[in-house]
Design the sequence.
């Protein structure tokens, strides 16, 4: 049989409150750190990884298109030389 000890009850309440406070402080610190890093990234003109990957894919597609156009130009030039000869 357990007895109610007011001291232990208060200690349990204080511990629970302290844990809640520590968790809230951790979340606040995380938010502040994220805001600070976002501000620094903006100052350094850095971009997010998603934006970089999208731009990288776009550049690769443009390079492929340029190579295709160069190949078409070479074929047309060769056909023109063959027709004039």
Sequence:
């Amino acid at each position: 049989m357990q007895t109610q000890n007011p001291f232990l009850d208060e200690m349990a309440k204080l511990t629970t409150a302290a844990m809640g406070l520590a968790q809230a402080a951790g979340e606040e610190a995380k938010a502040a750190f994220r805001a600070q890093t976002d501000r620094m990234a903006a100052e350094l003109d850095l971009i997010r990884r998603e934006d970089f990957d999208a731009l990288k894919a776009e550049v690769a597609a443009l390079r492929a298109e340029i190579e295709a156009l160069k190949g078409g130009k070479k074929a047309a030039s060769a056909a023109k030389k063959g027709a004039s000869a």
Notes: The helical segments are 6-43, 49-84.
